[in-house]
Write a structure and sequence with these properties.
The complex is a heterodimer of chains A (324) and B (447). Chain A contains eleven helices and ten strands. With 324 residues, chain A is of the alpha/beta class. Chain A has a single domain (16-318), classed as Alpha-Beta Barrel (TIM Barrel), CATH 3.20.20. Chain A is globular, with a radius of gyration of 19 Å. Chain B has 447 residues and is α/β, with parallel strands linked by helices. Chain B has three domains: 5-57, Electron transport complex subunit B, putative Fe-S cluster (3-methyladenine DNA Glycosylase II, Chain A, domain 3, Orthogonal Bundle), CATH 1.10.15.40; 64-311, TIM Barrel, CATH 3.20.20.20; 324-444, Rossmann fold (3-Layer(aba) Sandwich), CATH 3.40.50.11600. In chain B, the strands form five sheets. In chain B, strands 10-9-8-7-6-3-12-11 form an eight-stranded parallel beta sheet. In chain B, strands 13-15-14 form a three-stranded mixed beta sheet, with helices on both faces. In chain B, strands 1-2 form a two-stranded antiparallel sheet. Chain B is flat and about 80 Å long. The chains are: A alpha/beta (324), B alpha/beta (447). Chains A and B meet through helix 7, helix 9, helix 10 and helix 11 of A and strand 4, helix 8, helix 9, helix 10 and helix 11 of B.
């Protein structure tokens, strides 16, 4: 008698969210990206529809970052000083979308301005046909100025705007609504806080089909287990029908990993850490792969080799199953 | 899977004969469920019911132990599908594959290097668990010599990958005195392999391409008298691995399906073009019991060891760091002094930011019972008294030429009290978030 493998029946599913708009849709993107829609746990295809692949983005900065690992500076070369060229290089490296992060200051040390942010976003939109996310500096007052300008500049492109946090989301959400964009709802590793912010943002009138949640994750060795379990719990809740957890999940393992010592530092570390470059890429990809298994829909990386390795993983996991 | 009182009741004679000492069969069943009575008190229970009740009290995934010389590893006995439901108990063993086709010296060199490998992670010493020695030559004498060579440089547990009873016996002879895993029996050789494993009293891995055949084989082998089994479901790439290992775990836990209620073994190096490191990472998170790596590369092993540590951390018991004084970037007498709690993530957030900033600094980690700054403050575990005590016993006073201490911005409210507790010290209120430490030091710390 053939084995009967226990199947879970789920009442709910993750919402589908589409990033980017083509010419017909009022934007200029060469393609759009739809994520979410899962009606089963990650990659268990025989239990329910998993209509969209996990998508991979590369992070691009508005200016040359001062504090990035020399390994990243080396691999991106001169493009790192020009956001348009960098976005183009990221597209060539195989990214599905560009994750543009703004900095508090410009390359000459002067404070960032709405005019500069507009110009950067314009350059990136011209440099690549990929859908775009634009993320603020992390300083609330400055972000409100910069991102309102960005939202207007990219009107109709259906970009993902962030970061909405519990203390600062109203201006961003209003700007996204006025210009047909999406928002990223970011909370610190907690299922209830994650739900709560989605509710608050949705209460302002933006449809749930335009909210992506970022539950925050730690790097491998630096708290990954918290983010990992919060994501598993969020996805289980979504499948069980808890409406406010049914947003697609974005995570930023690239940012988390490349700031830890294991990736950042090549000298004066224990020999048992192994080759610096391979270790760094393993750190980023091991973190990212674990989060993919926990339910990530959008994964933001920094190193092109990490993207190549993750691509093989998500392609294989997306392939409809042969019977086990 | 433990049975409820009612489920047990259905298996009893239901005659209320009282010979067990309880007034009714139901009362006896309730006591059995609560483990306050023993089944043998019932003289009339059928053999069939007895078998069912005994089977139900065994763990759903068998615990299998491998031993080396003074070393051992236990795998299996897991009870949940997701770590947040309780915890994952037995970290999967990470083994390195070595082949007897290497010359003895080469084999010894490889084994010695990998045996000596260890890495420190938050004060925990991590390393490989053992070696999987493969009889690739097909020559029993050569294989016996290879196992002996590995044992001459390592006391860690072994897995003997031997495809025939002759090779298995040769390997086991060299492994005498330890309890290796014999790997593996399949549909073609299971009878003879089971006989060898039974005689040597060692656990046996069972390999099959489909779960149906795997379940059939384990039942036959268990009948033949080998109880400690390990499942090799012949996983391939990322997707087939996830499907098969998930199916096995679910059958064992959700359906209490005994024939697959054993730990699993995987070989991520043979994964259809997948990266060995990433496939091993998947196996760590999703249900492998033993993982045999083909390559020894510290740059890949270190992240895997840390991932295993993280995934198998008990969610109820956060990792704590030892309270005390920590030095970051070789601080001198002029370097700033910061205070935080001993919750590992808090500690890492702070030490990482300081380290990344390039500032030499002293960090006093206060015993806050493993809680983060705000949680500990709310619970009264991170108050002025505790901070003052931690600063005093740290001996920092003799190491610095100033008396200024920076406290987390989230507990700014403590600064007044802390001035009382730490007479003569200047209390500085730092940023709320660790990420702002570098900017804070730049703006606020004048040497």
């Amino acid at each position: 008698m053939p084995l009967e493998i226990p199947k879970e029946k789920w009442a709910g599913k993750v919402r589908e969210v589409t990033l980017g708009a083509t010419k017909d849709q009022g934007g200029t993107r060469a393609r759009t990206l739809t994520v979410g829609g899962e009606a089963a746990l990650p990659f268990l295809h025989h239990e329910g529809a998993l209509p969209h692949q996990t998508v991979l983005g590369l992070e691009v900065r508005d200016r040359k970052p001062e504090d990035w690992s020399p390994l990243l500076a080396k691999v991106w070369g001169e493009a790192i000083s020009d956001p348009g060229a960098w976005a183009k290089a990221a597209e060539a490296a195989g990214a599905d979308f560009i994750f543009l992060t703004l900095s508090p200051t410009q390359a000459d040390g002067s404070p960032n301005t709405p005019a500069n942010a507009r110009q950067v976003v314009r350059k990136v939109l011209q440099g690549t046909g990929l859908p775009l996310a634009v993320i603020g500096t992390g300083q609330a007052d400055l972000d409100n100025e910069l991102l309102v300008a960005v939202a207007e500049e990219a009107k109709g492109e259906r970009i993902l705007m962030g970061t909405c946090e519990d203390k600062n989301y109203r201006t961003l959400v209003a700007a996204a609504m006025a210009n047909d964009h999406l928002v990223q709802s970011k909370t610190p590793m907690d299922v209830n806080l994650s739900k709560q912010l989605v509710i608050l943002i949705h209460d302002m009138g933006i449809p749930l089909e335009r909210i992506i949640m970022d539950p925050t994750t730690g790097a491998l060795g630096y708290g990954i287990e918290y983010g990992y379990s919060v994501m598993e719990r969020l996805r289980l809740a979504a499948l069980q029908g808890d409406s406010m957890t049914q947003q697609p999940i974005l995570v930023t393992p690239g940012e988390e990993c490349w700031k830890v010592k294991e990736a950042k530092v090549g000298e004066g570390v224990p020999g048992s850490w192994g080759d610096w470059e391979r270790r760094s890429i393993n750190w980023e990809t091991t973190t990212a792969a674990s989060l993919v298994h926990a339910g990530a829909d959008l994964v933001v990386l920094r190193h092109p080799e990490s993207l190549r390795l993750l691509r093989a993983l998500v392609n294989d996991l997306a392939r409809p199953a042969q019977a086990a | 899977m433990p049975l409820t009182g009612l489920e047990i009741y259905k298996l009893l004679p239901q005659t209320n004969c009282k010979e067990c000492g309880f007034p009714t069969c139901l009362a006896f069943a309730m006591k059995l469920a609560a483990k306050q009575a023993e089944l043998k008190a019932c003289p009339y229970v059928s053999e069939e019911s007895k078998a069912k009740l005994e089977a139900a009290s065994a763990p759903p995934i068998r615990l299998v132990t491998l031993t080396g010389e003074g070393t051992q590893i236990e795998v299996g006995n897991e009870t949940v599908l997701f770590r947040h439901e309780k915890t994952f108990f037995h970290r999967p063993g990470l083994f390195l594959r070595l082949r007897d086709t290497d010359a003895a010296d080469e084999l010894k060199r490889k084994a010695a290097e990998a045996d000596a490998y260890h890495v420190d992670y938050v004060g925990i010493n991590l390393g490989l668990d053992g070696f999987a020695v493969e009889a690739a030559s097909g020559d029993p004498a050569k294989y016996a010599a290879a196992v002996a060579a590995v044992r001459s440089v390592s006391k860690k547990p072994l897995i003997l990958i031997a495809g025939s009873p002759e090779l298995a016996k040769a390997g086991l002879q060299s492994a005498a005195g330890t309890r290796p895993l014999l790997c593996s029996a399949d549909a073609s050789n299971w009878e003879s392999m089971a006989a060898v494993a039974k005689e040597a009293k060692v656990p046996l891995a069972v390999r099959a391409e489909s779960l149906d055949s795997l379940a059939e084989l384990t039942q036959q082998i268990a009948k033949a008298g080998v109880e400690d089994l390990v499942l090799d479901p012949a996983v391939g790439g990322y997707l087939s691995s996830l499907e098969r290992l998930t199916a096995i775990r679910r059958l064992a836990l959700k359906s209490a399906f005994r024939p697959l209620g054993y730990p699993t073994i995987t070989f991520p190096g043979s994964g259809d073009g997948a990266s060995e490191t990433l496939l091993a990472a998947e196996h760590i998170a999703k249900y492998a019991g033993l993982i045999v790596l083909d390559t020894f590369d510290p740059a890949g092993l270190y992240p895997l060891l840390v991932l295993r540590q993280n995934i198998y951390t008990d969610p109820q018991k956060p990792i704590q760091v030892v309270p005390g004084l920590y030095e970051i970037n070789a601080p001198d007498a002029k370097a700033p002094l910061l205070v935080t709690t001993n919750f590992s993530i808090t500690y890492f957030a702070v030490s990482n930011e300081v380290e990344g900033s390039g500032w030499p600094a002293w960090l006093v980690v206060t015993d806050a019972e493993g809680m983060s700054v705000l949680t500990a403050w709310a619970a009264g575990k991170f108050d002025a008294e505790r901070i003052a005590k931690a600063v005093k016993i740290s001996g920092i006073k003799d190491k610095i030429g100033h008396q200024r201490v920076i406290i987390p911005g989230a507990v700014a409210v403590l600064s007044g009290e802390l001035e009382e507790e730490l007479q003569g010290w200047q209390i500085m209120v730092g940023p709320r978030e660790a990420v702002d430490i570098a900017a804070y030091l730049k703006a606020m710390w004048a040497n």
